[in-house]
UniProtKB/TrEMBL annotation:
Domain Exonuclease: 105-279
UniProt-listed Gene3D superfamilies: Ribonuclease H-like superfamily/Ribonuclease H (3.30.420.10)
Entry's family note: Belongs to the REXO4 family.
Protein name, UniProt field: RNA exonuclease 4
GO molecular function terms noted in the UniProt entry: 3'-5' exonuclease activity; nucleic acid binding
Top-rank taxon: Eukaryota
GO cellular component: nucleus
């Protein structure tokens, strides 16, 4: 029991973790759950049931093989986006509504970088795209970098020198996006719950915002590269390309890459994670003041008398689950 208490104290198991639908094992990430079900050394009982009734995208166990077939067809999304984005011109539908729209608004952002510096290795934002929750492109423009471009990386970006010659200056793009995200709310006043500012979704957002020279509160960002359930078992980030193929069922970033396609993939991953049906709790986070003494050392004797189920009931998550946005 002493070892179990110590394990529960450091593992932060909660209702928000991915869980095996067969043996109810709690996993830190979906990659860990995938290894448990179909990895090199899976649990055989779980593997055999998953092979018959498991969805290979969301890793859910269904009631029957037929239910699995119907579910998996719905769970696998279609790519087919590049054709609609191929001839996309400049677009600017950014509006500040001061929070009058119903519910918290969510937008996804992605950038494409060209190279600067003597060897072309310095990332410079040359194209930026934003999509709304319905996958509509609300902003798309080429960006004129503040320093000369030495490598256009045409094979992956498709960007030519003439596209940037009369492009929008970086400072102007940065201000327009910042104002749109804040939505009439001062930066210092933005808070994670409530308020008018928009939730920002993306992959490796810190890098994109750094290249845009834009600041935004971490509590308002939903980064698919840093969300614990979507990370590797080694706690490193998965690529957006891998996440889209593994969890949405289609390929992106084949050949020339489009930031609008990246936006849609990140938004779809976010909405899928947000739609997880988890138990509603008043205080779901281990950092909430009400939970800070749940596994305090002075409660050791009391904790050792608890059953595993009772300990799990007071164990809380150490990360913000996106289901709490719904």
């Amino acid at each position: 029991m002493e070892h179990l208490v110590e394990h529960m104290r450091t593992s932060y198991h909660s209702v928000h973790e991915p869980m095996c639908g067969v043996c109810k094992k709690h996993c830190r990430s979906y990659e860990s759950l995938r290894e448990h079900l179909i990895g090199p050394l899976p649990k055989q009982e779980c593997k055999s049931i998953f092979s018959i009734r498991g969805c290979r995208f969301c890793l859910t166990i269904l009631d029957s093989p037929n239910a699995r077939r119907v579910h998996q067809e719905r769970c696998q999304l279609s790519g087919g986006l590049l054709a609609s984005f191929a001839n996309l011109g400049l677009r600017d539908s950014l509006t500040i509504d001061n929070g009058y729209a119903r519910g918290r608004q969510v937008v996804a952002l992605a950038c494409k970088m060209v190279g600067g510096g003597s060897d072309g290795s310095l990332d410079l934002c040359a194209r930026v795209c934003l999509v709304d929750e319905n996958e509509n492109v609300i902003f798309h423009t080429y960006v004129k970098p503040p320093i000369p471009v030495t490598n256009y990386r045409y094979e992956t970006t498709g960007i030519r020198p003439e596209y940037l010659r009369d492009a929008t200056p970086l400072r102007q793009v940065q201000k327009k996006i910042q104002d749109f995200l804040c939505n009439g709310e001062p930066m210092w006043k933005i808070r994670p719950r409530g308020g008018k500012a928009r939730i920002l979704v993306g992959h490796n957002l810190d890098h994109d915002l750094d290249r845009l020279q834009l600041e935004y509160p971490a509590g308002m960002m939903r980064d698919t590269a840093k969300y614990p359930p979507l990370m590797k078992t080694s706690k490193l980030s998965n690529s957006l390309k891998y996440l889209t193929q593994a969890y949405l069922g289609y390929d992106i970033q084949t050949g020339m890459q489009d930031p609008c396609e990246d936006c849609v993939a990140a938004m779809r991953l976010y909405t899928r994670m947000r739609s997880q049906n988890h138990t509603v709790e008043d205080y779901p986070l281990a950092s909430d003041p009400q939970n800070r003494n749940n596994f305090a050392s002075w409660r050791q004797s009391e904790l050792e008398r608890m059953s595993p189920e009772e300990m799990f009931a007071i164990s809380k998550s150490d990360y913000y689950c996106w289901c709490l946005d719904s």
